[in-house]
Amino acid sequence: MAKANEIKYLTAIKQEKRAKKFCRFKKYGIKYIDYKDAEFLKKFLNEQGKLFPRRLTGNSLKYQRKVSEAVKKGRQMALLPYVTDLLK
């Protein structure tokens, strides 16, 4: 006879819902992205120093471009590294 932990039911497996992605700049009304704020810009970089794509950050196209320009300016001013092994 089957034990209690071996009984399988014909129901769907519950899947966790991911939080809906949103553009944090539109939601919080951020108009200007400051290239001098390195800690804020690090949220958009991975461990190697590459920029996260829009599909991962949830940014709109307009603000993703502004973030990329701010990161480039921050790299030129030596506030952010071009390449690194472990950034975070």
Polypeptide structure, described:
The protein is mainly alpha-helical. It has a domain at 33-88: 30s Ribosomal Protein S18, CATH 4.10.640. Helix content is 33%, strand content 0%. It has helices at 24-28, 38-41, 54-57, 61-76. The relative contact order is 0.19.
CATH homology group of the domain at 33-88: Ribosomal protein S18
The structure class reads mainly alpha
User: Alpha-carbon distance between the termini?
Assistant: 54 Å
Provide the helix percentage. Answer: 25-40%
CA gyration radius, whole angstroms: 21 Å
User: Total helix count?
Assistant: 4
H and E string:
HHHH
**Overall 3D shape:** elongated
CATH class category of the domain at 33-88: Few Secondary Structures
- Average residue-wise pLDDT: 88
Reported for the largest beta sheet, the result is: none
Low-confidence stretches: none
Amount of beta strand = under 5%
Strand element count: 0
The CATH architecture of the domain at 33-88 can be given as: Irregular
Q: Would you tell me which CATH topology of the domain at 33-88 applies?
A: 30s Ribosomal Protein S18
